[in-house]
Specification:
By secondary structure, this protein is α+β, with helices and mostly antiparallel strands. Helices cover 57% and strands 13% of the residues. Helix 7 runs parallel beside helix 8.
Length: 340
């Protein structure tokens, strides 16, 4: 199109100069060959300038855009759009000469968006993996403390345990060793993730019996021997879908925190209430309470037990709330709401 326009302009200029040559005396002193050569030379300069503007400018713009992508900047520069009016709801219009390469710029825009989404997904995945690794590293301390406590009891010279008690200790150590192996296996499988959320394995189970067993298990924890645990509910059986492993680790983290952060003889009550569209789990103690600054730090730090518990609850589409029981800061109440 540019070549045809250049030839057309060359013919018009030539015809016009021939007519002007008869009217302007200085032009009569220039030969026809020189005039045609001059017109052709000017046309070539204009043709190169127009081509450089129509082709070179978008090409340089694309090169700069690709350099931005190579440096991790996936946002479209948008300099190739006209400035739309504030009330304009229409699609953005392309400026010239970028409008000549509209399809190419639309493809580059889609590529930038895909790269940005992929990078965002990758970063979110890394954050989730780090949270998962931190939670497993933290939760490994719980069965390890069981093993350490029972091993200390078995080797204590001042106690003489019966064979039945020794078998019970050995059974507890074996169970916690199996739990540690499972946690380590989960840690090894972290690199195989293909989704952003924690690996969920929901099954329909009795949440009443599950919570009762969890409270009993923590009550037998060596670190909780001076803490009084109790479980209350009006329901004998209630079936719901949940991940036994993740929800168990969440409840264990909360119960263990109430034991290790409160003085001896602290009373901890775990209550289960079935509501219309949700299940409410309330864990309340009469201990020393929790400072707001410490609570805020614990809730935001991915390696803390409270943050881990909250992450597992939210993985079940639930919510966890922590409040003080009394105004003077005595006691802590943790409310866990799960959809049923």
């Amino acid at each position: 199109m540019l070549v045809a326009a250049s030839v057309f302009c060359f013919i018009l200029f030539a015809i016009g100069l021939f007519y002007l040559r008869e009217e302007i005396a200085p032009l009569q002193l220039i030969s026809t060959r020189t005039l045609l050569f001059s017109i052709g030379f000017i046309q070539i300069i204009l043709f190169i300038t127009v081509c450089a503007w129509c082709v070179g400018k978008p090409l340089i713009y694309l090169i700069r855009w690709i350099n931005r992508l190579s440096k991790g900047n996936y946002h479209s520069p948008e300099d190739h759009y006209r400035t739309p009016s504030k009330n304009s709801l229409q699609e953005k219009d392309y400026r010239y000469p970028y409008a000549l390469f509209k399809e190419l710029f639309e493809g580059m825009t889609r590529l930038s968006e895909q790269l940005y989404n992929s990078e965002t997904e990758r970063l979110n995945m890394e954050v989730k993996k780090q949270e998962w690794i931190s939670s497993i590293s933290h939760d490994l301390k719980t069965p390890l403390s069981y093993i350490e406590g029972y091993a200390h009891l078995l080797t204590a010279a001042e106690y003489h345990w019966t064979d039945e008690e020794k078998r019970n200790f050995s059974r507890q150590i074996s169970d916690k060793t199996t739990e540690m192996k499972r946690l380590i296996q989960d840690l090894n499988h972290t690199s195989c993730w293909s989704v952003e959320q924690f690996p969920m394995n929901r099954k329909r189970e009795d949440v009443v019996n599950f919570l009762r067993d969890t409270v009993i298990d923590i009550a037998n924890h060596p670190l909780a021997e001076h803490t009084q645990f109790s479980f209350t509910t009006l329901e004998s059986v209630y079936m719901m879908d949940f991940d036994r492993t993740l929800l168990g680790r969440a409840i264990q983290n909360v119960l263990v925190n109430t034991a290790i952060h409160n003085p001896p003889r602290t009373q901890v009550i775990c209550d289960l209430v079935i509501q219309e569209n949700s299940v409410l789990i309330v864990i309340e103690d009469n201990g020393v309470g929790i400072d707001e600054a410490v609570l805020k730090q614990g809730m935001n730090h991915s390696g803390k037990g409270i943050a881990i518990a909250r992450a597992f609850i939210e993985a079940h589409s639930g919510h966890m709330n922590i409040v003080k029981v009394d105004g003077d800061g005595s006691g802590t109440r943790i409310e866990i709401t799960l959809p049923n």
